[in-house]
Amino acid sequence: MGNMRFFRKDGEFYKRVFSITWPIALQSLISIGVNMLDTIMVGSLGDDALSATSLANSFITIYHIFCMGLGMGASVLVSRYWGMRNAAIGKNDGEGEKDANRALKQTVALMLRITLSLALAFALATAIMPRTIMRMYNGEEAILNLGATYFRYSIVTYFFLGASLVCTIVLRSVGKVKLPLFVSIGAFSINLAANYLLIFGKLGLPKMGVAGAALGTLFARVFEAAVICGYLLFVDKSIGFRLKHFFMNTRSLIGEYFRISIPVLISDGILALGNNTVAMVIGHLGGTFVSANAITSVTQQLSSVVISGVSQAGAIVTGQTLGEGDKEKAVSQGYLFMGLGIFLGTIAAVFILILSGPVIASYKNVSEETVHIAKQLMLAISIIVVFQGTNSIMTKGVLRGGGDTKMLMLTDNIFLWVLAIPLGLLGGFVLKVSPFWIYIFLKSDQIVKALWAFLRLRSGKWIKKISAGNSKEAK
To answer: Is the model's pTM score more than 0.85?
Structure first.
């Protein structure tokens, strides 16, 4: 079924993928830049301030991950219904178009309700027990106090962060990828200016320190939510979602929504927990290993921004193609996406190998042992990224777009918890192998998943039927 070639001339396909990918990749680059600037600005206030904001943001990141799961789960449905609607329009099928339009709006309504309910839960927890949350990460009194201050100014941030994040993902699913990019550039500028003015007390404003950093982030999130959600609710005609639809009857789609979306949410949540466990393993391997890993982190992030963009494009394109009813084309595109994964993973590997020397050399005050470990880690990362690039585009992209979310939830976590983490523990603490092999062991799930993704693609079992719900029940 489908053309099983990884590489072939298909200008229309590559043009479509690139048009979705570049704004998403550029937006990721901006996010990395914002995080780096935040760290530098807050870092100038001292170690306690940097630790407090970093640890408080670890908790806020949990909510961010949940929202990503909700948004990406909804994206699978939105892409499919968008394809169904286009196919119905092409066939002059008025009833089919009506059903797809209704299902689109119901998906957005359910996604927003769950996102805002979660925001309320996180906001209440942050308001009621900020010190208790901080104590999960660190017990030092100075860090607890600064973290509680940061939280106090971040309580309402959850609502704006969640709403803008999930609405961005929905707009991308119907091809609106440029607006979120421009909004990110605006938010970046607001965050930078507000941080500078409020953290350091410039232009006659009070010097707020950590509270200023929290407010700077809040202002940026309010701007993002106002523009993105304002566009979706009042301007966008593609989905046609309006404020009144937030309260629409969604009973007919609840089953389908949870079947597709909740495995994505669980998968991303447990994977985040697994990645934290990997960080804990690295943390217990000693200070030099932690420092060496920190040196490599920005290089890793930069090398994967395009891959992340192509992953999201994979889910959108696959969902739309299947919605149009063309399974054979979806499979052929799946092989092309896998070819893109191999190609981009190899490019990322070369990028890491070229940059590793200059990046490591830029850290002047680290020990020779840290430099030695960092070099080994860079080499290991350059090998892993080929597999990681491939399986990221396949699992977070093509297979997820096909609706195979339950199987992905199982395999993601089985390979991580049964293979990678035990192998990492064995290599680091029992066999005491070199840092190169410890890293390979900790990321071994990426290698196995790339092979599994190819076999899954070839089987065709990843293409799941998705219904637009019962139109009678929706009335």
So the answer is: no
